[in-house]
Design a protein that fits this description.
The complex is a heterodimer. Helices cover 45% and strands 18% of the residues of chain A. Chain A has 13 helices and ten strands. In chain A, the strands form two sheets. Chain A has a five-stranded mixed beta sheet with strand order 3-2-1-4-5, sandwiched between helices. A five-stranded mixed beta sheet of chain A has the order 8-7-6-9-10, with helices on both faces. In chain A, β1 (5-10) and β2 form a beta hairpin. The two termini of chain A are 23 Å apart. The relative contact order of chain A is 0.19. The mean pLDDT of chain B is 96. Chain B has helices at residues 39-53, 73-90, 140-150, 158-162, 164-167, 180-192; strands at 2-7, 12-20, 25-34, 63-67, 94-97, 109-115, 121-127, 130-131, 136-138, 154-156. Chain B starts with a strand and ends in a 29-residue tail after the last helix. Chain B has two domains: 2-99 and 178-192, Nucleotidyltransferase, domain 5 (2-Layer Sandwich), CATH 3.30.420; 100-171, Nucleotidyltransferase, domain 5 (2-Layer Sandwich). Chain B has six helices and ten strands, in the order βββαβαβββββαβααα. A five-stranded mixed beta sheet of chain B has the order 3-2-1-4-5, with helices on both faces. The chains are: A alpha/beta, B alpha/beta. At the A-B interface, α2, α3 and α9 of A face α1 and α2 of B. Chain A: It is found in: Cytoplasm. Chain A: Residues 26-316 form the Gcp-like domain. Chain A: Its EC number is 2.3.1.234. Chain A: Fe cation binds at residues 113, 117, 310.
């Protein structure tokens, strides 16, 4: 078989994505987002997201097929995010994928969203050397994984014990009067600020915490520390230096993420670090990871920002990897699993 | 003309193949499972099964008919997105029908009531198969008042049984859920006329539960 032509469908949160890849080549990456509808609620409202997916799926599919210049009859397999994510949102994508697969008489692969965030990097940088360490950071997840064999399963090394990194960005942005989602505006504001001007806490980095949580993260305390600092200024009637707060908060997050990721690489003797998820679009995280990894001879792979956030191409990329590896497809009764474990790459 | 019928507006997940001819609608195969929590798992295999039983391939379909609800949102969307994706793949029209209408095809004045959860029902009143009221979602006590005003003699549907006492209308035993033959019949004229397909828009009747963000709580005492 020549390289597989695979279509990927992603609906785990607020982005409706349909991507088409051939082997490691990206052919189309169509996306519809309901993010604007969630802004006034300060976070993603599951029912609003599910309704938007139902409206967007058919036109987004059409756009992806048109952009790639293929039809469903040409496709070798359809991959879809089966979890983890918002249950009702996942279900729209999974049911759609089943309809496409059964009508076109093609195999279907229900895949893990987080493994797809790792796989998407192959579209930009080619096959992933294994083993690799993956740092996945988004509004819903913050995890460190050991990737031995992306087709078979990944080993979780650590994860956040409270808020996800992206969630902390959203909450701090709100505190500073910046819009939702908080990642891009904090990144922008931070460029005018000094990241060392305020020292915010680095969660789970004290020796007593490292004994039990060496590769885990905590961002809840950081978020509260920023709130206390800002409120103290407000109560004193002093202006809040938004750029300095944004930069110092961002520095605390990126410092912990990169240090723990490098520690994982060194502990496991791994020379490749791949970073994915929406927070991987953050410019400071990308720069700091490059700078620190260079010191230890670790190669950092971070896809371009558009591929870091949720999209259909990443699901197609993982599907293509599974097809090439000869993994058996899923059955047509595959469930959407909002709590799909990281050890399961496809169901 | 071979038509695929799907409905997931109630705890029942229905898939059927119907042959629509100039003067008849004949159901050739159907699957129904009742499980309010597994629409996503059950529907696609049921579609595959009705095709296999009728010895048909997907490309033999000339149209898709789907129940638009009203019904609990998550399950309802499964049926609609399945119908829409199959229709798009095969490039055949999709037609929506109100799921309550499929229960209202009876003589006389009939109250159709399905379970809307949260102690409410989705309902409408019919006379000889013609809908007299817009589909709505209300407390059974409210519906009882409207049904009495309209002179309803009999009620039908799962909600009519569950709340029979409050509704004060005798409930018929069958059907409990929208029958495939009735769903197909409601769209038969459009199938025969090869009418343009429609985008399948669910009858939600309720807004999403969501509260706009309030003033942030301070962390300092």
């Amino acid at each position: 078989m020549t390289e597989p032509l695979v279509l990927g469908i992603e609906t785990s949160c607020d982005e409706t994505g349909v991507g088409v890849v051939r082997g490691h080549t990206l052919l189309a990456d169509a996306l519809a987002s309901s993010v604007d509808e969630h802004a006034r609620f300060g976070g993603v409202v599951p029912e609003v997201a599910s309704r938007a997916h139902l409206e967007a799926i058919v036109p987004t599919m059409q756009r992806a097929l048109d952009d790639a210049g293929v039809t469903l009859a040409d496709i070798d397999a359809i991959a879809v995010t089966a979890g983890p994510g918002l249950a009702g949102a996942l279900l729209v994508g999974v049911a759609a994928a089943k309809g496409y697969a059964l009508a076109a008489e093609k195999p279907i692969y229900g895949v893990n969203h987080l493994a797809a965030h790792v796989a998407v990097d192959t579209l930009e940088h080619g096959p992933l050397p294994e083993p690799a360490i993956a740092l996945l950071v988004s509004g819903g997840h913050s995890s460190l994984l050991l990737v031995d064999d992306l087709a078979a399963g990944v080993t979780p090394l650590g994860a956040t014990i409270d808020d996800a990194a992206g969630e902390a960005f959203d909450k701090v942005a709100r505190l500073l009067g910046l819009p939702f989602p908080g990642g891009p505006p904090i990144d922008r504001a931070a460029r005018e600020g000094d990241g060392e001007s305020i020292v915010f806490p680095r969660g789970l980095t004290a020796p007593k915490d490292l004994a039990r949580h060496r590769f885990d993260f905590s961002f809840s305390g950081l978020k509260t520390a920023v709130a206390r600092w800002v409120e103290a200024r407000e109560r004193a009637g002093e202006p809040v230096p938004v750029a300095h707060v944004a930069a110092s908060f961002q520095e605390a997050v990126c410092d912990v993420l990169t240090n723990k990721a490098i520690d994982a690489c060194r502990e496991r003797g791994v020379e490749t670090l791949v970073i994915g998820g929406g927070v991987a679009a953050n410019s400071r995280l990308r720069a700091l990871a490059e700078e620190r990894c260079a010191k230890y001879g670790i190669t950092v792979r971070v896809p371009r920002p558009k591929l870091c956030t949720d999209n259909g191409a990443m699901v197609a990329a993982l599907g293509s990897h599974l097809v090439a590896a000869g993994v058996a497809p899923s059955r047509l009764n595959l469930p959407a699993d909002s709590a799909m474990p990281l050890t399961v790459v496809s169901v | 003309m071979l038509v695929l019928v799907v409905d997931s507006a109630t705890p029942a997940v229905t898939a059927a193949l119907a042959e629509v001819s100039d003067d008849a609608v004949v159901v050739r195969s159907q699957r129904r499972a009742v499980d309010a929590r597994a629409h996503g798992e059950l529907l696609a295999p049921a579609v595959e099964a009705v095709l296999a039983e009728a010895g048909a391939r997907p490309r033999d379909l000339t149209a898709i008919v789907a129940g638009l609800g009203p019904g609990p949102f998550t399950g309802l969307r499964v049926g609609l997105v399945t119908a829409a994706s199959i229709g798009q793949t095969l490039d055949v029209p999709t037609y929506g029908v109100c799921s309550l209408d499929a229960l209202g095809l009876l003589d006389g004045k009939v109250l159709v009531a399905t379970d809307a959860r949260r102690r409410e029902v989705y309902w409408a009143v019919y006379e000889d198969g013609t809908r007299l009221t817009e589909p709505a979602v209300d407390l059974p006590a409210t519906v009882a008042g409207r049904a009495a005003e309209l002179g309803v003699a009999v009620a039908i549907g799962e909600g009519a049984h569950k709340y029979a006492e409050v509704l004060g209308v005798a409930a018929r035993d069958e059907p409990l859920y929208p029958p495939a033959a009735a769903l197909a019949a409601l769209a038969a004229d459009r199938v025969r006329a090869k009418a343009p397909g429609e985008r399948l828009t669910p009858l939600y009747l309720r807004r999403p539960d969501a509260v706009a963000q309030s003033v942030r709580k301070p962390v300092l005492p």
